[in-house]
Amino acid sequence: MRKLSKRGMAAAAAAAVVSISTFATPALAAATDETPFQIGDGVNACPGNRICFWNDANFHQGDGKGGDFASFETDKDLPDMGKLVEVDPFHDKGMQDATSSVLNKTGTAWCLYADNNFSGEHVQIDPGQQIPDLGQVQPNINDLLSSAQMGKC
Ligand SMILES: [Ca+2]
Questions:
Q1: How far is ligand 1, taken at its centre, from the CA of residue 121, in Å?
Q2: Which of 106, 149, 153 is nearest to 127 (CA)?
Q3: Angstrom distance (rounded) from CA 95 to CA 128
Q4: How confident is the model at residue 31 (pLDDT cuts 50, 70, 90)?
Q5: Is 85:92 a contact under the CB 8 Å cutoff?
Q6: What's the 12 CA to ligand 1 centre distance in angstroms?
Q7: What is the enclosing helix (H) or strand (E) of 7?
Q8: For residue 141, how far is its CA from the centre of ligand 1 (angstroms)?
Q9: Is the pLDDT of residue 16 over 50?
Q10: Model pTM score
Q11: Where are the domains of the chain?
């Protein structure tokens, strides 16, 4: 009886440890793997099958201005980069008119636009292409990107 009881307690303790770790692991994964913002510096910070945008040239985050993000990744069309996520009713946190470098790790071309809703000056970024400085492309749309859409321009 006494041995069984000890074993039972050990099993209960082991179960408690397991349940704590299985609870903690997904919570950590959600915080690090699922957020598409502040991805870090450098081309390796961009996950596969995503297009990535950085506030500074050469794939550096630099400082987000006015509470904006300094980088983000996505695989979805972006009609308004100023509204990547709603922080409060008065401020949609985004990256309007801020992007200076872009990397396309998706399998399709994307068209990057200076205005919302896929309009205005635009440049195309092909699959696998990197643009380290939007100030060097024609037209110069450094710090002007406002929307992006899958497909050729
Ligand atoms: Ca910038």
A1: 17
A2: 106
A3: 22
A4: very low
A5: yes
A6: 55
A7: helix 2-33
A8: 10
A9: no
A10: 0.76
A11: 6-150
Cα angle, residue 68 at apex, residues 65 and 69 outer, rounded to 5°: 115
Instruction: Say if residue 23's pLDDT is above 50.
Output: no
d(CA 28, ligand 1 centre) in Å? 30
Question: At the topology level of CATH, where does 6-150 sit?
Answer: Gamma-B Crystallin; domain 1 (2.60.20)
The residue type found at 47 is P
The band of 3, judged by pLDDT with boundaries at 50, 70 and 90, is low
Span from the CA of 39 to the centroid of ligand 1 (angstroms): 16
Pick from 17-21, 66-70, 81-85 the range whose average pLDDT is largest: 81-85
| 55 Cα–ligand 1 center, Å | 4
